[in-house]
Design a protein that fits this description.
There is one protein chain. This protein has 320 residues and is an all-alpha fold. It has one domain: Farnesyl Diphosphate Synthase, CATH 1.10.600.10. The chain contains 15 helices and two strands. Helix 14 runs antiparallel to helix 15. The longest helix is centred in the middle third of the chain and has 28 residues.
Length: 320
């Protein structure tokens, strides 16, 4: 992503150093695990959104870097805990913390990351950042629990789906944009606008993840994985509410009882494709992307705004 390097390349390098410093521990085991986490870092989309949202409204400063580090600390903590909840042996092509060590250590590592985030914010009196991000963590927990509750009953309400992803996925990205904007503007109206911008990007991001489950590209997770886990994604929800009662019953039966059978999973994927579920999800994703861009376009055209637009488009055009 050249547009990122051209606009916040130096800031990202500074952020990476500050983040590595923020997670250091005098406990050898913890420090070893922290170095492992840093080594296997992902695309760092959320810190990018923090930095660009900040730069859109002023000059990146120490408060911006603390916001980016806080976002990444909380995001990493939730990923570590998610791997424990899902009993996942891998994350981003690497062994998960619970696979390399054990579940107890992984839970404690997640707690450590959360505590480092709290200390980073309170130690620098970044209480506005802390408030923004604490609300995101609350929404993420509520979203995950709501998903578990509705998955058990196979609730096929589109409204419930958007409530879930608004909490579990979009809330952290919206908070990243809000905290970044606040760090350079100290303006609550601007912060609220960027929070809404980030929420719409986050929703589009999650729908893109849903669509990966029905694709054939090498995206780092098996095709049909969400079906195996009985997750109700948008393409499937649309299909369930569109097909005949007979087909719906068969799909429900497969999801409940035959979700490990490759042939039956393929039947579900084919049914979703034929019913237009993938097309519908793509349309919804693009609508949220365009709503985010409409907010962004209220700002003056320039390199930073263009870089943010490219980053938004990357979230929906990405291949993994």
């Amino acid at each position: 992503m050249d547009f990122i390097n051209n606009n916040i390349g130096e800031e990202l390098k500074i952020f990476e150093k500050k983040f590595a410093e923020a997670v250091k521990s005098e406990t050898l085991l913890l420090d070893t695990i922290m170095k492992y986490i840093i080594k296997r870092k992902g695309k760092q989309l959320r810190p990018m959104f923090v930095l660009l949202s900040a730069k859109l409204h002023g000059t990146v400063n120490e408060s911006t870097y603390r916001a980016a580090a806080l976002v990444e600390l909380l995001h990493t903590a939730t990923l570590v805990h998610d791997d424990v909840v899902d009993d996942s042996p891998q994350r981003r092509g690497f062994f998960s913390i619970n696979a390399l060590w054990n579940k107890k250590i992984a839970v404690l590592v997640g707690d450590y990351l959360l505590s480092k985030g709290l200390l980073l914010a309170t130690g620098s009196n970044e209480f506005r950042h802390l408030h923004i991000l604490s609300d995101a963590v609350k929404q993420m927990s509520e979203g995950e629990l709501l998903q578990i509750q509705k998955t058990r009953k196979l609730n096929f309400s589109e409204d419930i789906y958007f409530e879930i992803i608004r909490g579990k996925t979009a809330s952290l990205l919206s908070s990243a944009c809000a905290a970044g904007a606040y760090s350079t503007s100290n303006n609550e109206a601007i912060t609220a606008q960027m929070k809404l911008f980030g929420e719409k990007v986050g929703i589009a991001f999650q729908i893109k993840d849903d669509l990966f489950d029905y694709g054939k590209d090498n995206i780092g997770k098996p095709t049909g994985n969400d079906i195996k886990e009985k997750k109700l994604t948008l393409p499937l929800i649309y299909t369930m509410n569109t097909v005949s009662a007979k087909t719906r019953r068969e799909l429900v039966y497969i999801i409940k009882n035959e979700n490990k059978d490759p042939k039956r999973i393929k039947f579900v994927i084919d049914a979703v494709t034929e019913a237009g579920g993938i097309r519908y999800a793509n349309e919804k994703m693009n609508r949220y992307r365009d709503e985010a861009l409409a907010i962004l376009h209220t700002y003056t055209d320039g390199p930073v705004r263009n870089a943010l637009e490219e980053l938004v488009r990357f979230t929906t055009d990405r291949k993994y």
